[in-house]
Specification:
Strands 1-2-3 form a three-stranded antiparallel beta sheet. It is globular. It is about 55% helix and about 10% strand. The chain is built from ten helices and three strands; from the N terminus they run H-H-H-H-H-H-H-H-E-E-E-H-H.
Length: about 220
């Protein structure tokens, strides 16, 4: 599709722009809201706010599914984040039409519509937390993709396991490798907090080391 000036326009270009604008605005809000927090805190909190899952959920709450319903009938909805992508495209369009100050207010009102401290307290990045724990104890750490299959809607399903110090701690499935890693990490965190047997296995594992050559696979 082309605009009235003959320039090529589509949602993917608007998503690209909206994604960049959203990241900049959220970074600005966090920087002002938390003047004494370090860079790692600000980065992690921003990631939670702009993550695909959150934007997708928000897009649904805003009713974007009614606009995309016809498109989604032809494929799976569990791993394409279409509603979040549409929200990013809207942000890009608002920026082009109304400018930065207007889209700043829109994002602050619509995206960050609850106390921003709630986002700061969320611990959704289980993978990062698990990696930090393993590194703190000088354990090796890796994810393994056990297998992947195609489901009834022709969408991929990934089965991953998490290994700490040579011990298979947990496994999970997800509609992306990232999702399967997160779910496996969530299970692993629960185990290392409540399963003394797992802790004993990990602490006596075959690859306990204090060296800097720990095997950590991050995708």
């Amino acid at each position: 599709m082309r605009d009235d000036k003959g320039l090529f326009v589509n949602n993917e270009r608007l998503e690209y722009l909206g994604d960049a604008i959203l990241a900049a605005v959220v970074a600005d809000i966090l920087y002002k809201k938390f003047p004494y927090k370090h860079e790692g805190f600000l980065t992690n909190t921003r990631s939670k706010i702009v993550q695909r899952e959150h934007l997708n959920e928000l897009g649904i709450k805003l009713g974007l599914q009614s606009l995309l319903q016809q498109k989604l009938k032809s494929g799976a909805t569990h791993n394409n984040y279409s509603f979040g992508n549409a929200l990013e495209a809207i942000i890009g369009a608002i920026y082009l039409d109304k400018g930065y100050d207007f889209v700043y207010s829109f994002i602050e009102r619509i995206i960050i519509d609850r106390d921003i401290n709630d986002f700061a307290r969320q611990e959704k990045n289980y993978k990062s937390k698990l990696i930090e724990w393993a590194q703190h104890h000088h354990y090796t750490f890796e994810f393994r993709l056990d297998r992947s299959v195609i489901d009834d809607t022709e969408g991929p399903i990934f089965y991953s396991s998490v290994w700490i110090n040579g011990v298979r701690v947990a496994d999970a499935r997800g509609y992306t490798k990232k999702e399967s890693h997160q779910m496996a990490s969530k299970k692993a965190i629960r185990k290392i907090h409540f399963d003394k047997h797992i802790i004993a296995l990990i602490s006596t594992g075959a690859t306990h080391t204090n060296s800097s050559s720990e095997r950590i696979t991050i995708e």
